[in-house]
Write a structure and sequence with these properties.
Pfam families: Bac_luciferase. By secondary structure, the protein is an alpha/beta fold. It has helices spanning 33-53, 74-83, 102-115, 132-135, 142-158, 197-206, 218-234, 255-266, 288-297, 299-303, 320-326, 334-347, 365-379, 381-384; strands at 2-6, 56-59, 89-95, 120-125, 164-167, 172-176, 190-193, 209-213, 243-251, 329-332, 353-357. Helix 3 crosses helix 5 and helix 6 runs parallel beside helix 7 (218-234).
């Protein structure tokens, strides 16, 4: 299993200054430019430390959010392409509904792949429902744009005898010619997120790595759905490196400190619902089938942000032990974290990648660095021998 360090690069100093939503509408006047600059440098320092410790790196993208300042992931990715030496650099990902210019996305990422000499991995995401209020995109046409952008970007990367023209339904380019091209031809390893067997289906058909985010044991059904379709599509057993899970993780060399750090990290969880009411699932955003399944599942599972091993929703006010049992927050002394991650991986049928939120919320730099060092020294070795190849893996 490969470990990837991830942080949402939050502006957490503002979280307790308002009771209003932290996404779309928080007053930008709460931002202090000196603090913002310090935080950006701190997060980059922690990514560089992760590289030195042997972890891979994941960066994401959100907009108008106090919980994630990474609105242009190409910028930290470009810095990291230069400053890191070995880490694979995963951009997971670019919400295509919020990007009106997919050719620019192809060009930005191609440069990052060149600068890093082929360490880029890339994920297409459709983006959160609330972000559509920022791009003013029509959710009913979102997936049409998504797949057209997907096809255009892949063709732009794969074409080495350009230029070509693109006259699609949503995008029109007289000349597409990505210069200087991309290092990993025809394209870097590809990822997509998915939170249900239904959403995993298309990812499996493409052969991309499926990433399930902070959903606890919902991942078990999601991964099972992926494996089934993968094996039907490709006629072979699903490789372990096609399955990834994102969870929080923190450790310390004594129980009291580990518990204190776990509480500091878990504070991120309380921000998840802090978006304006009615923006999570705008009409047309989720497929009709998904909305029907959610309705049949009932309000408890609809509102739940994770499932316990028995399939029941996470308690409304979970304990740290319940969070570990659910696979949402792995915490404790290093030996405890090893057991928790291994247990979760076994229960969901195996994992190839652990997307590790090793920093979040109020976990400060010293605590984050110390935890990362312990995770690298005493946790990662228990899983690293079974890690998929760090060499670039061309998607089918």
């Amino acid at each position: 299993m490969r470990f990837w360090h991830f942080t949402e690069q939050s502006y957490h100093p503002a979280w307790d200054k308002t009771t209003d939503p932290l996404r779309i509408v928080p007053p930008s006047s709460m931002m202090d430019r000196e603090v913002v600059a310090d935080l950006f440098h701190r997060y980059l320092d922690e990514y560089r430390l992760a590289d030195e410790l042997g972890f891979d790196i994941m960066v994401n993208e959100h907009h108008a959010s106090m919980t994630c300042m990474s609105s242009v992931p190409a910028i930290p990715m470009a810095v990291l392409a230069r400053e890191t030496k070995k880490a694979r650099l995963l951009c997971l990902g670019v919400p295509m509904a919020n990007r009106m210019d997919p050719l620019r996305v192809a060009e930005e990422l191609a440069m990052i792949d060149m600068i890093s000499r082929g360490r880029l991995e890339f994920g297409f995401v459709k983006g959160s429902g609330w972000e559509l209020y920022i791009s003013n995109s029509n959710p009913a046409r979102m997936m049409e744009r998504f797949w057209e952008a997907h096809d255009l970007i892949l063709k732009a990367w794969a074409t080495r005898d350009g230029p070509f023209s693109w006259e699609g339904k949503h995008f029109h380019y007289r000349t597409v010619n990505v210069i200087p091209g991309i290092w990993q031809h025809p394209h870097p390893p590809m990822w997509m997120p998915g939170s249900s067997a239904m959403s995993a289906k298309i990812v499996a058909q493409k052969g991309y790595t499926l990433a399930s985010f902070l959903c606890g044991h919902q991942a078990k059904a999601t991964f099972a759905g992926y494996r089934k379709v993968y094996e039907e599509t490709w006629g072979r057993e699903c490789p372990l490196d096609r399955l990834a899970y994102l969870g929080m993780a923190v450790t310390a060399d004594n129980q009291a400190e580990a518990e204190r750090r776990a509480h500091a990290l878990y504070a991120y969880w309380s921000t998840v619902p802090r978006s304006p009411a009615g923006t999570f699932n705008p009409a047309g955003y989720a497929p009709v089938e998904a909305n029907a399944q959610a309705y049949l599942a009932g309000p408890a599972k609809q509102m739940s942000m994770g499932l316990m091993p028995d399939g029941k929703p996470l308690p409304a006010k979970p304990t740290l032990d319940e969070l570990a049992e659910a696979g949402l927050l792995f915490w404790g002394k290093p030996d405890q974290v090893v057991r928790q991650i291994q247990r979760f991986a076994d229960q969901v049928g195996g994992l190839g990648h652990f997307l590790m939120m090793g920093q979040g919320a109020y976990l400060d730099h010293k605590e984050t660095a110390d935890s990362l060092k312990l995770l690298a020294k005493e946790v990662y070795p228990a899983f690293k021998d079974s890690a998929p190849s760090p060499e670039p893996i061309a998607a089918e």
